[in-house]
Design goal:
63% of the residues lie in helices and 17% in strands. The chain is an alpha+beta fold and 227 residues long. Strands 3-4-5 form a 3-stranded mixed sheet. A two-stranded antiparallel sheet has the order 1-2. A hairpin with a 5-residue loop joins strand 3 and strand 4. 7% of the residues are buried.
Length: 227
């Protein structure tokens, strides 16, 4: 469907371009007077509509060319000299949904596939989650995906990313735990400050001992010289 839309948009853009080029040629050759075009409101409105349509089609084609270029539509599974076998992105979606059904707290809304710089596959899953422990649920889903893709299609993703679009479970902060952590942090800071203060106090004593040792050594040297 998208390919057909792209072809229709490209054909429309070419037709509008031809209209502009022919009009410009007729104006340059004098076949059509510029004053006649300016006085005709219908022609002015028609040209304004064509300009808006041309700009919209150009923006759409630019979006298709750049924004969707990284998305992978088919995955090459294996090939030889005689044939090649590929899997459609819908096959990947079916496997993802099957794995998500095994994790009741996670719902996959959509899946995007792309290729990284090293030609490795990257899967990005946009999910809704209602679990208490998000990391455990997502890790379970990730392991199911890794095992399913490897045993079903024989492929391995270099990275499986998760984007949480919605958190269905109402979040309630643990106030008691936060207060305990704050007390532990405060005690740790006080202990570190006490250790630093003790170190700063002991440094002058070390320097004084060093000076006394130097004085005693010089006195012994003078005594030896007198003897």
């Amino acid at each position: 469907m998208k390919k057909i839309a792209e072809k229709v948009a490209l054909a429309a853009q070419i037709c509008i371009t031809l209209v502009f080029v022919l009009t410009l040629i007729l104006c340059m050759t004098g076949t059509i007077q510029t004053a006649d075009l300016q006085d005709n409101k219908v022609v002015i409105v028609l040209f304004i509509v064509l300009i808006l349509v041309y700009a919209s089609i150009s923006a759409y084609l630019l979006y298709v060319a750049f924004a969707e270029k990284e998305n992978v539509k088919r995955i090459l599974l294996f090939y030889d000299n005689d044939c090649a076998t590929r899997a459609n992105a819908k096959v990947v979606d079916n496997i993802v949904k099957g794995c998500a059904n095994e994790v009741p707290d996670v719902k996959v809304r959509r899946t995007k596939l792309r290729v990284d710089d090293k030609q490795g596959l990257i899967a990005t899953l946009y999910v809704e989650i209602s679990a208490d422990n998000i990391s455990t649920s997502l890790e379970k889903l990730r392991l199911l995906l890794v095992d399913s893709f490897k045993n079903t299609l024989g492929i391995t993703f270099s990275t499986i990313n998760f984007e949480i679009d919605k958190l269905n479970k109402k979040f309630v902060p643990n106030k008691e735990r936060a207060e305990q952590n704050a007390e532990v942090t405060e005690k740790k800071t006080e202990t570190e400050n006490d250790v630093l203060a003790d170190n700063e106090t002991s440094l002058p004593e070390i320097f004084n001992d060093g000076k006394e040792n130097e004085t005693a050594t010089s006195a012994e040297t003078e005594n030896k010289d007198e003897i």
